Amino acid sequence: MSNPLPPIARRLAQQRWVMRTAPVVIPVERAVRRWTDGRMGVLDVVGLPSIEVTVPGRKTGIPRTTSLLYVPRGENFLVLGSNWGSPKHPVWSANLRAADTATVRHKGAQFTVGVTELTGVDRKPAWDLAVEFWPGYEMEYELSGGRQFRMFELRRV
What we know:
Blueprint: H1 5-12, H2 16-21, H3 25-35, H4 42-45, E1 50-56, E2 63-69, E3 71-73, E4 76-80, H5 91-97, E5 101-106, E6 109-117, H6 123-133, H7 136-143, E7 151-156
Antiparallel strand pairs: 1-2, 1-5, 3-4, 4-7, 5-6, 6-7
């Protein structure tokens, strides 16, 4: 039997009130990751793909870990800095922008990935794929005031 939760989550993610209250999920996400030794997070529980990305802080060099929804792109991971529709870019995206590589934890496995920020002609097909996979990105874009989300493709090294 397939998980009925992903379609429900996708519909909920298109509701403004959900994005406004969604940041309360962050402490729950951290707790679930701790309890499962990083094997799963809240998104995994509802049947959506998530990864933990660890990248050094661009100013401090201290490793910072963030759980993110990802869009599958072949063997690679597409991540977007939507920041729940905030007008500001998420800090993790500035750190990732400054890095050539990062560490990803996915379903308990940990590995190094190369980081490519998608710009120019590479952005549009990636954006279309992301919105098809997670329609809430369009609403988050509107909530952000039209901020262009940073988009990254992460590929195993």
